[in-house]
Amino acid sequence: MQKIIINILSAAFLFTATLTAQTNISGQTVKNARFTYPLIERWIAEYTKENPEFQASKELQALTGKESSLTIITSQPADSDLTISQQITYVGRYALVPVTNRKNPILERIPKSGLSKKQLKKIFFEEADELAEDNNEAKSKFAATVYSRDNNTPSSIALAKYFGAKPEELKGKKVLGDDIYLLSAIRKDTTGITFNNLSYVFDTQSRKLSNGIALIPLNVKTQQREVLSLPDLDNTLSLLEHSSVDNIPVEKIGFVLSQEQRENKTVTAFIKWILTKGQAFNHAAGFLQLDEATLAFQKEHIDEKLLSTIQ
């Protein structure tokens, strides 16, 4: 889990994403999920537009000069990872897709049916040369170079979970810093491959693939393959929201709230807005909306918290 510090001032509602102390999950120190920041910033900006009085509320004035920390989580923890007073409110989802340099020779060698989950697992967790030919010359020319983050980052944990592996089994050259640097690495290496989230793989302005990046063809249903073969962020988000697509991990993101935060009307009102009007901004930032069942469940529970704070 990653600490997101929201500095609340009486004159303005300011969002400051700082790299604070790392949090321990299941014995692992989980580093930041910086890729979520643009979405959270957008929610805050839009909420402030609709609620100008929110900036001058008594609750916010009482917090002037203090840091009200909200913890954001990007993979589902075990019950033992949370304290008795903590609860998670999920607010969106993200997807991880396999990508490569658009000039990578392996794109010509992948079968029309695309790579299977078994093949991807071999590439990223077992055998980095799964796509290589039998002879050494071909291996040297066509072997894929895997790039990955540290084992304790959210993307590595989510990827390992999807493939039924352990984060420490993730292969590849380790790239420090934000997930976006994985794309920088494969742009410089025509044999490079990696997994990354849609908000980085696609340009959120043009809605097309980021410069120099290509999606790795996947073994999926015919209609799904047609959508993925003509990469478009909105079509991809719609596809993932309306169907389960093999080989593309989808994870929820959410706020971990303490009892004090759940009893704070300012916090709960903001999160309720995210669950209603705020979902409309998920796509713009490259994130999926919650599925209907999860959204209904989260709304019901946040409404209960609002009622309890009013009574």
Automatic annotation (TrEMBL):
SUPFAM superfamilies: Periplasmic binding protein-like II (SSF53850). Keywords: Signal. Residues 1-21 form the signal peptide. Gene3D superfamilies: Periplasmic binding protein-like II. This is ABC-type phosphate transport system. It comes from Paludibacter jiangxiensis.
